[in-house]
Each structure stands twice: as C-alpha cells, then as structure tokens.
Amino acid sequence: MRPVSIETGVLKHAEGSCLIKIGDTHVLCTATIEDRVPPFIKGSGLGWVTAEYGMLPRSTNSRMRREATAGKQGGRTVEIQRLIGRSLRAGVDRVALGERQITVDCDVIQADGGTRCASITGGWVALRLAVQKLMKVGDVVSDPLIDPVAAVSCGIYAGQPVLDLDYPEDSDAGVDGNFIMTGTKKLIEVQMSAEGSTYSRDQMNTLLDLAEKGVDELVAKQLEATGA
C-alpha cells in the first residue's frame, strides 16, 4: 500500500467528513443526513445510502472540463458513483437506519490512480461519523453499520502482482482489478479485466490475497480515524 492518511472533521457543516490521502490520490468525502428517502422505498421503514462522485478540473495533469458546464455527467462518473453507493449499502442494516437517506459525496482533489477505491474507503469513514451523530442524539438506537467497507486496486504490472496501483502502473497494467470488501473479508464486488494480457486462476487468487492484505490495512485506518 502507498501511505494512507485519513483526516476527519474537515468540513464544518457536513454531518460526517474526511480527507483521505492514499499516496498522491486525495479525495474529500462528506456524508449528509436527510429525513427523506427515494419514492420507491417511501413508507417501507427502510433507510437509503447513495453517493455522488466528481473530479475537480485540476485533479489531473491537464485541466478537465467541469461536467456541469457540459450539462451532463460522463459515463465513467455515473458508473463510479453507483459503485460507491451500492458498496456502502452492502455494509448497512437499512432497517436499523430508519427511513432516512444519507448521501455520500466524493470529490477528487488530486488523482494518481485508485480514485474510486479511495472514495469508497473514505466514504465509509464519512458515513460512520454521520451515523455516530445519529446515535449520539438517539435518532438511531442500534448501530446500522454492520461491517466496515473498504476498497483497493490490484493488478499485474510488468509481469508482477502489485497492490494499490498508482496512475503510471494502472495505465500500463496488463491486468487491472478493483476489490471491494468488508472488514470481515466478505466480497462486495470485484471489477477485474485483462488490459493487455489474459490472467490465470492462480494469478487471480494471488491478487485476491493482496486485496485482503490491503483492505486489512485500510480498515485499521478507518477504525483509527473514527474511534470505532
């Protein structure tokens, strides 16, 4: 793993917030609590966790155009924010959360590979802090967060298995994968593809082992940051 740091309480108004840094990838994550849910679950008693994701114009080497000026989100943005949302929901007891929505916003300040993984990992920290506030005031009786959720990239670069790829490694990797897991090592989602070469079952198992190691380290950082 590249060096990991998580600074909490970085925004005054958000119910939960953190700045997560994994190497040179920096993502600002916030969680907002609202006393409403989407229409399709209204009246069900279930809570909802959703996410939004974006990259700032100079988070990359050259300036990116703001998606707001284009009038729509790009396909990559939509895919990533859906991934973040469903990953975080996998660690939530929606009955215990009650009929409310928590929106996790992930804004990439600086990108050097693994932005979706950093967003999921930091997003859980922001979510944890928001839920702690709900429990402190008694709005939620039992803890709705079942298990920490974290994500890490793994790939095969120059013929070698690599944990937590930075951008140069990611852009030239023969095999690239993102692994989303719980703190108890249960898989939520695996995105894995041959970018330049195929891979064997043994190689996939090696990358899964690496991912477990990385997620262990990330969960330890999450728990340290939230005091959980």
Automatic annotation (TrEMBL):
One Pfam match: RNase_PH
Lineage: Bacteria, Pseudomonadati, Pseudomonadota, Alphaproteobacteria, Rhodobacterales
Residue numbers binding phosphate: R76, G114, T115, R116
Subunit field text: Homohexameric ring arranged as a trimer of dimers.
Highest taxon listed in the record's lineage: Bacteria
Database matches in PANTHER family: EXOSOME COMPLEX COMPONENT, EXOSOME COMPLEX COMPONENT RRP41
Gene that produces this protein: rph
Descriptive protein name: Ribonuclease PH
Annotated EC: 2.7.7.56
Family statement drawn from the similarity comment of this UniProt entry: Belongs to the RNase PH family.
Purpose: Phosphorolytic 3'-5' exoribonuclease that plays an important role in tRNA 3'-end maturation. Removes nucleotide residues following the 3'-CCA terminus of tRNAs; can also add nucleotides to the ends of RNA molecules by using nucleoside diphosphates as substrates, but this may not be physiologically important. Probably plays a role in initiation of 16S rRNA degradation (leading to ribosome degradation) during starvation.
GO molecular function, one term: tRNA binding
Span of domain Exoribonuclease phosphorolytic: 1-130, 147-214
Keyword Hydrolase among UniProt keywords: no
